[in-house]
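Local shape tokens:
==================
===
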Amino acid sequence: MKRAMLVVMFILAVSGLMLAQTATSSVDVLGAHNNQGRGCAGCHAPHSGSFGSGHGGAADAGAYALWGQDASPLYGHSIGFGDGAKYVEVLPSSIVATGGNDLEVGGILLCLSCHDGNATAANMMVNQSYEQVIGLITNTTYGGGKIPTLLGNDGTAAGNYSNDHPVGLNATISAGSGLVFANGVFTVTAGTPYAQFVANYGWPSLAPGKWSAPTGVNGAGKPYIACTTCHNQHVMTVYTASAASKIAGNATGYYATYFFVNAPYNVNLQTYAKNQAPSTTQFCRQCHFGEANEANNTNNITTAFQ
């Protein structure tokens, strides 16, 4: 009996290890953010800030993380995100005057200093997804239209942010069903519906990281979403599991992702078992948990990663 139990436990352990993915990348993982050969210095000028990279924002020079772009055109701008532009974010008045809310700078303002396309110059971008341009997206259901990379000037109307996902102090995340927010970080209560979702997918975009928290805290003490909650600007094609951010229970493994998404997010997966959900769907359910299987008494739908 003991030997049989050991065999069963071994099989289960090996099966768990086999679930960890080994996705790799056919291009440099920095992808589009290699900035047409400028590399890391395109964003992190090692000397003289924005002047050192050929830009000239005096207020930006050397002020924040060796920032090599000019964010000054956006200072103090009010942007209305989401349906009817009802989620209004007033950008910081400078690169350092954030009142402690550094995520507003590093997670929103600096992203828009390249990706706004309205108040900022287009820089090196062609306003089309890099993965699409070089042929990494093979899922034909995406169609032939260009996937834009400039917000506020995406080909619909200048200054249009109402078709963009809300970010900023008013774009708050609701806790519940086992997802708990306290003392500036999220935790998950064992044995709850959200814990079951974490077991089936993970919570990489909300789990507190080793070096930083993916969400900010507004004046009312509520967690808010930034661009960098959903996106990791440093890795375009692969998400790496870790002890701090397990994926489907695995503390190791490499998972396919696209668009710099800060989680497993495989847009090329078109077929999967009926008792599975694609990683693209699961990704959104981290915050939109009311639409998750586990929030609707359906606990055995695992995730198809690739």
